[in-house]
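Support request from a user on the community tier.

User writes: "When I paste my structure tokens into the form, the page sometimes reloads and wipes my input. The last time it worked, I copied everything first. Here is what I submitted, just in case something in the input itself triggers the reload:"
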């Protein structure tokens, strides 16, 4: 994702797409929320970030470290996405899960709260999300951000599933309005 931010900041991109390279925002859903949070925490000149039913991958793998059943379930999920029929990625699911388990603490989203709290964040959750349950992923991040004094934290909770099936238009409207407000506040700001 850092490479995508670098591309969005380039003069070529700005010219081709009539974009402002100084107003880059990240929006990530599910696993994309995890990658977006990791990138936002590390790339200081991202204006704002949206975590849509985001996954705290590190926390999930801490649970897998403690419970062999969870670990086996995650290996099954990875294996389904790594076979010839399931997806474009090929590899050893057991090895991938082992590597993630070994890095779980460093990949816990709540450990990034200090770095994430330096800019506006929109956190969106669904009450009936069975993929990234609100209490395990969203609520823990909100608590961590509040604990470190995040001042630009906006929450939106929808009575919906992981992909916001019944609220797509409402979610899109809310996201666009929030992004517009946050990005317009930063007109003329230059990256660090």
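"...and here is what came back when it finally went through:"
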């Amino acid at each position: 994702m850092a490479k995508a931010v670098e591309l969005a900041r380039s003069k070529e991109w700005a010219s081709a797409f009539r974009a402002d390279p100084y107003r880059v925002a990240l929006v990530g859903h599910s696993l994309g929320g995890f990658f977006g949070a990791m990138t936002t925490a590390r790339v200081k000149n991202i204006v704002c970030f949206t975590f849509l039913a985001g996954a705290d991958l590190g926390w999930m793998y801490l649970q897998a470290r403690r419970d062999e059943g969870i670990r086996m379930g995650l290996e099954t999920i990875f294996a389904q996405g790594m076979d010839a029929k399931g997806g474009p990625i090929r590899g050893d699911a057991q090895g991938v899960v082992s590597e993630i388990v070994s890095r779980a603490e460093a990949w816990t989203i709540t450990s990034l709260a200090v770095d994430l709290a330096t800019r506006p964040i929109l956190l969106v959750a669904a009450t009936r999300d069975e993929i990234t349950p609100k209490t395990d992923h969203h609520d823990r991040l909100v608590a961590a951000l509040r604990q470190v004094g995040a001042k630009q934290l906006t929450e939106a909770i929808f009575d919906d599933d992981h992909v916001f099936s019944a609220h797509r238009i409402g979610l899109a409207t809310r996201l666009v309005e929030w992004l517009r407000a946050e990005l317009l506040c930063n007109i003329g700001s230059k990256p660090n």
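Agent notes: The reload is a front-end session timeout and is unrelated to the input. The mean pLDDT is 89. The chain has two domains: 2-56+110-184, 63-107. Escalated to web team.
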